[in-house]
Design goal:
The complex is a heterodimer of chains A (about 160) and B (about 170). Chain A is an all-alpha fold. Helices cover about 75% and strands about 0% of the residues of chain A. Among the domains of chain A are: about 50 residues, no CATH class; about 50 residues. The chains are: A mainly alpha (about 160), B mainly alpha (about 170). At the A-B interface, helix 2, helix 3 and helix 4 of A face helix 1, helix 2, helix 3, helix 6 and helix 7 of B.
Amino acid sequence: MKAAIQKLLEKYFEGKTSLGEEAELRACFREEKVPKELEPYQSLFRFFEEEKKRQLGSGFDDQLLQQLKKKDKPVKIRNLFPQAIRIAAAIAVLIGAFFIYQTINKPKTSAKRIVWENYEIKDPKLAFEETKAALRLLSSKLNGGANKAAEEVEKIKKVSKIFK
Amino acid sequence: MGLKEFQENILPIKNRLFRFALRIVSEPVEAEDVVQEVLVKVWKNREKLDEVTNVEAWCLRVTKNLCIDKLRSKHKRVVSFSSESPETLRISDKGANPYQIASMKDTFQYIQDLMNRLPEKQKAVMQLRDIEQLTYKEIAEALDITLNQVKINLFRARKEVKDQLVRLKFVEK
């Protein structure tokens, strides 16, 4: 018996056992009493059996099935309402932007070009008199400004005399 | 496929997926999340399930990929699914002598640690063969590897476990 198990173990560690032979090894090592030199292998095969007993918790199935049902739920109309509002708002913005664009890009009425030739004084004598009048007007304005400045300077001189 | 058919045909594999996910991510809560994600995916793609030859193998593959994504997103060092050298539990590095380890009550925990330190592919193959008792063909489909790779990885995994047990002087060479 011991020799048979040892031979099977040798084959096992060479990776040459069939599923049936491995089941045989597991059955041998399920026994309480095994030869001392085979005890470590007993631990190994019992470990494999214990590992196979590991399972998911009892609530796993219900949790999963609930999740799967949610994934299959049809989209409610009520949920579409906020979406519809968003779409309508986006369309309104687009329409508004279109009208603004149209207004900005409307061709402007161009300003009428002044035809200076219509205002040109053809007569030289008349042109000279008009020029003199324009210059006299300019001079009077400039003098007015200079007199004003002189008045202010006098005022400042009077004030500075007080503080001396 | 209706909900009833889903409950009868698909839900029964949940524990196998859970144990497989747990082997990769090591944390029960995360493993449970992964399984839930996988089954939701199956439900969403239930119309296309006729095109899948082996639904369980497909589920195991999705489980593996989601676990790797989860580990990466948590910036955990993910050993790529390859047959690289294991992070062997070096008893001497831990500072405990073999006799101290040998007297430990929790041998199962020790073997658990041993298994968890195997390279990802070896760990996955050992999980699916020694614990889930899948055939080599089923394992190859689940992990998207060849039959030969299944055999090589299983051999290396079992050898590593045995070598570690020998180091502990549990077993005579």
